[in-house]
């Protein structure tokens, strides 16, 4: 992108200088991938690099957990052009986002970035992410990975309930250690 800007800046200056003498004409024709410069019937063609957006990150990690516990997810980031990657954005589905800029560094295509998160409410969340390349082009958002934080029945509560049932059954069928015969 910088090369194109510099080339067009030089061409603009050249156009001003040449048009002032009124003896030469430079015209520029362009589309998305091809640039053409004509100068005194000489045509110069050059290609500009077509930048494809990065692929959406692939997310792996747990899909069920407990509230308040931190879980680590792996985000595999790739680019079809093998461009360097920056700015991993993660939407955790709970109204919070993480933007990991790489702390001033970039990632190679194929890097696995690990990020942890904890949820504070009982609910099912959808985790998605996207990444940008060196040209500032973002990928589409990834496929959602569900994370379910279900209600938990504690074993201590279940044990108490089990104890009450045993006590009731014992009092119905036993009389102080003797089996009551039911006729």
SSE pattern, N- to C-terminal: HEEEEEEEEEEHEE
The second-level CATH architecture of the largest domain is Sandwich
Give a count of the beta strands, DSSP E runs of length 2 or more: 12
Q: What structural category arises from helix and sheet content?
A: alpha+beta
Most strands sheet: 4 strands, antiparallel
Give descriptors for this structure.
183 residues, alpha+beta, Immunoglobulin-like, four-stranded antiparallel β-sheet, three-stranded antiparallel β-sheet, 2 helices, disordered N terminus
Tell me about this structure.
With 183 residues, the chain is α+β, with helices and mostly antiparallel strands. The chain folds into two domains: 2-47, no CATH class; 58-149, Sandwich (Immunoglobulin-like), CATH 2.60.40.10. Helices cover 21% and strands 37% of the residues. It is built from two helices and twelve strands; from the N terminus they run αββββββββββαββ. The strands form four sheets. It has a four-stranded antiparallel β-sheet, with no helix packed on it. A three-stranded antiparallel β-sheet has the order 1-2-3, covered by helices on one side. Strands 4-5-8 form a three-stranded antiparallel β-sheet, with no helix packed on it. Strand 2 (34-39) and strand 3 form a beta hairpin.
């Amino acid at each position: 992108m910088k090369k194109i800007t510099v080339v067009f800046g030089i061409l603009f200056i050249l156009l001003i200088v040449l048009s002032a003498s009124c003896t030469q004409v430079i015209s520029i024709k362009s589309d998305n991938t091809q640039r053409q410069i004509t100068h005194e019937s000489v045509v110069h063609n050059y290609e500009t690099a077509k930048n494809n957006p990065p692929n959406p990150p692939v997310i792996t990690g747990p899909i069920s957990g407990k509230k308040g516990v931190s879980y680590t997810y792996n985000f595999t980031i790739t680019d079809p052009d093998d461009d360097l990657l920056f700015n991993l954005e993660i939407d955790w589905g709970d109204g919070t986002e993480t933007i990991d800029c790489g702390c001033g560094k970039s990632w190679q295509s194929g890097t696995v970035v690990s990020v942890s998160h904890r949820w504070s409410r009982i609910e099912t969340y959808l985790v998605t992410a996207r990444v940008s390349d060196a040209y500032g082009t973002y990928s589409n958002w990834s496929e959602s990975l569900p994370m379910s934080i279900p209600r938990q029945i504690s074993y201590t509560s279940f044990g108490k309930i089990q104890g009450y049932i045993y006590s009731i059954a014992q009092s119905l069928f036993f009389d102080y250690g003797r089996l009551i015969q039911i006729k």
